Amino acid sequence: MSETTPDPRPSTSRKRTSKRTPKKAPASVLAQTQGAVKPAAKAKSESTSKSQDDSKPTRKKTTRKKRDLKKSAEKPEAEASVSEPKPAKTAGDSPSEKAERKPGGKTDKKWEEIFAGKSFADIGLRNTVRKALDDLGFKSPTKIQAEMVPLVLAGKDVLGQSRTGSGKTAAFGLPVINNCIRALPFQAVILAPTRELAIQITDELRSFAKYTPLKMVTVYGGQKIDTQAKSLSKNPEIIVATPGRYMDMIGRGYLNQDNIRFVVLDEVDRMLDIGFRDDIRKILSGIKGDHQTVFVSATISPEIESLGRAFMKKDAERLETVGGSLTVSLVDQYYFTVEPWDKSRLLRHVIKKEQPELALVFCRMKRTVDKITDGLSRAGINAAAIHGDLPQGKRNRIMEQLHAGELHILVASDLAARGLDVDGITHVINFDLPEDPEIYVHRIGRTARAGRGGVAFSFVSPDQGDLLTQVEQLANTHVPARTYDDFKPGPLPADVEEQRSREKQRREALTSKNRYKSAAPEVPAPKEKVDASKFPGGVVPTKLPPRRMGGKISRGR
Question: Cα–Cα–Cα angle for 459, 464, 467, nearest 5°?
């Protein structure tokens, strides 16, 4: 059995730099939005989980659909009628009822902190946009969306502040899509600090613009110029870019700012931290036509506000929402303290213990993705890998397996996981904790879709305590530790022991060569009586000078 310890930290001391009341944080997804919440979803999930524990099906030979049919056939009719949850009402619900609906029927204050109690029709979005939101299962806007969308629709410049996971992308993306004019190229530019976030934003916007003719292109460093130039030649209406590559494409003549009507800067605080301050000023000062400017950030410092207002209209609005994070609220988050060489064994142990219906395992590097997938397959676990070097045909086959319910573990890199449209992910496992806490929130946002709960596990090595603390500070939550009594750490690998021994010897060698720290040798006692008259002033030295040349003689040139 597993035990959950409420506050044990990694064996290495982790410096706590902020005072927060520890709280259980279901945490996860919808990093950019809100959830369609059906009370029956959680009950049905619990019923399915319970029946799986009783029957313990073999994963490799049975798909989820076939397993469910088999279980329903084996249940007595009376038992099935008791355990089957009643379907949630949809058609007859009023907008207020939809807004107040909580996952699993919960009516806690946390849910009320996130949503504004309105529908998307109430905030002025047109039918094509609302239809896409309905397909995604989104029924009620979060607080930042309910406040920002009407202002942007009305043509206002906005400084918006809201915490990560509260739906900021939809807050600026929905009104931009709503107000864009068809076939007017380069009319909206959205700047993001990193290419990962830029790709994430584009994926979200495409899902919102599903029923519109709008085209959008991501422009970022690391991809071939010719590839992006070809996409830009199709005259997309919306450009999502990192500042450096955006300026590069303007300089090369592939982009222009003549038609710009909307400028959005997402995660402004991070862009300034990275050093994009001068680039932002140059980009904004180069836009001459009438346009709207929107700054969105988790924090708005006086510097950010001063920068924004320098390029905004005088009546620009500042929004500060205190609503909670939907991602953090819906996902149960835990971490395991584990040495790097024990991670693979722990991953297999977690999978066998938790029996996830569908788990997404995140790794930093492509070679780690392949190595982990091979290890899981050898252990008899149904797993597949997906990363940037994977041929498109193989990627398509993996996606078909996912949608058919024939795959239970997907190991992926961050970039390869962008754009994955997969429902039913119950667990997210951070095999490698990301260096950027924002990426952590986007990762765990892959589970708990449509308002359902999810679970996120993170493998934290003893030297990553500070990184975990940064994640907690960003998400404003406490991540408790998780341990398994039947999992024992393995012995120190020979190569690691050898490396540590070499490092120790290197440090000792450096210390011994330090002429300032080495002890001065004593002067040997003279065998005969010393004639003091041979020394200046008759003073006979009894020890060597404290600082010496160390055998080196300076040669003047």
Answer: 100
Helix (H) or strand (E) holding 264: strand 262-266
Instruction: Return d(Cα 482, Cα 476) in angstroms, integer.
Output: 19
Instruction: Give the span between the Cα atoms of 459 and 250, in whole angstroms.
Output: 42
Whether the pTM exceeds 0.90: the reply is no
DSSP E strand stretches across 92-237: 158-161, 188-191, 216-219
The 8-class DSSP code of residue 439 comes to H
State whether the Cα torsion 14-16-21-26 is positive or negative.
negative
What's the DSSP call for residue 50? Answer: H
Cα–Cα distance for residue pair 299/160, rounded to 1 Å: 9
Which of 436, 431, 473 lies closest to 456 in space, CA to CA? 431
125 contacts 209 by C-beta, under 8 angstroms: no
Measured in degrees and rounded to the nearest 5, phi and psi for residue 30 equal: 55, 55
Distance CA 183, CA 235 (A): 8
Instruction: Give me the amino acid identity at 23.
Output: K
Q: CB–CB of 138/173 below 8 Å?
A: no
Asked whether the beta carbons of 9 and 465 are under 8 A apart, the reply is yes
Please give the torsion angle defined by the CA atoms of residues 341, 347, 348 and 349, in that order, rounded to the nearest 10 degrees: 100
Residue 337 near residue 460 (C-beta atoms within 8 A): yes
Distance CA 481, CA 217 (A): 41
d(CA 183, CA 199): 22
Q: State the Cα–Cα distance between residues 87 and 103, nearest whole angstrom.
A: 13
Separation of alpha carbons 190 and 180, rounded Å: 13
Q: Any idea what DSSP says for residue 519?
A: P
Question: Looking at this protein, which amino acid is placed at residue 30?
Answer: L
- Please report, as a single letter, which amino acid is at residue 243: P
Backbone angles phi, psi at 518, to 5 degrees: -70, 145
Residue type, 14: R
What is the Cα–Cα distance from 206 to 173, expressed in whole angstroms?
10
pLDDT averages per 10-residue partition of the chain, 557 residues: 42 39 37 37 41 40 44 39 33 34 42 63 91 88 89 94 77 95 95 85 92 95 91 96 95 95 91 88 93 89 90 91 62 92 93 91 91 92 86 79 85 71 82 85 72 84 90 84 90 85 84 58 68 84 71 59
Torsion of CA 21, 25, 31, 35, to 10 degrees: -130
CA–CA distance, 238 with 144 (Å, rounded to integer): 22
To which residue do tokens 């003719």 refer? 213
Q: Quote the CA–CA distance of 473 and 467 in Å, as a whole number.
A: 10
Coil, strand, or helix at residue 511?
A: helix
Q: Which residues contact 546 (CB under 8 A, 6 or more apart)?
A: 520
Q: What are the structural domains, with CATH classification, of the chain?
A: 2-67+326-484 (3.40.50.300), 143-320 (3.40.50.300)
